[in-house]
Amino acid sequence: xxxxxxxxxxxxxxxxxxxxxxRFLPGEKVLLGHDRGRKFAxxxxxxxxxxxxxxxxFMLVFLVxxxxxxxxxxxxxxxxxxxxxxxxxxGLAMGLIATLAAMVTGWLDDRSVDAWNEYLKGALDFIVxxxxxxxxxxxxxxxxxxxxxxxxxxxxxxxxxxxAVILFVVSINSTNATDGIDGLSxxxxxxxxxxxxxxxxxxxxxxxxxxxILLIVFIPSVMAYLLYNFHPSKMLMGDAGSxxxxxxxxxxxxxxxxxxxxxxxxxxxxxxxxxSIVKITVGRLTKKKIILFKNITTPLHDELRKNRKFSxxxxxxxxxxxxxxxxxxxVFAATLLRVLGVVQ
Length: 344
Fold this sequence. Notes:
With 344 residues, the chain is mainly alpha-helical. It is built from 13 helices and four strands.
């Protein structure tokens, strides 16, 4: 009962504090930038001048309240040394710090007078991904659960590390590329984290209090932002938000031991923003000798707006409903298999 009470306080505090910060934007002139517009992005001109980088606020609220509930007001003891392999308490703390680092790299770009070049941002993404993957391998091990069946296997640490780095890089950049339609990236992030929690809980058959805390604080923090970001948006999360969200989604998947679930919860990000990254990367590597998806404007939300003439609200609705259906069907199938006794 005490735990439930604390969760209610954490949920309310995360929503209320984020709402207040976004309502008044304290330190706006110092902390935030203003949208410069995006070349070739459909409808980007409408966002020019809006405060950007407000992901700094809601990500900071999420991380601080999560840390308070996980480590101060809900201390977890461990027989292992602080930095010893397998100490999940330290791993979670380090993971939250790494999420903060991912957010800060995006925030510094948001508030800069001139946009950082893509190579610098890519290098920073790669560095935080290397750090995030090391944290996951060292503190959480290399066991991977197949979410829908609950079966598991152990990967070689080196293989796991390489795949974890790829997961972090892909998640960061796909989430960032998806952030081009009001309310889209934030909504998809909530769906991804919520589904990850459900499937991680189902696969492990073990309630993890810290994962509950992360979920309970994450959703209201992002929801408060979405109230200001739904069309027509008043402010934008910027790279501070999208890179922080992308990193945390990857981290939470590994923390819940279901990293392969990204092929489900991350599919909307991959289909929307991911194809844009692939198209640009292949084009540059081949000096435009190979152009993928020639007849599709990327990201996908630009294709829907420019060529299919969808409104912003309709694009959001179509992509979110598609994502919700994918997640629902996967969770439903996993639940049905357990009810029928096909899997334990």
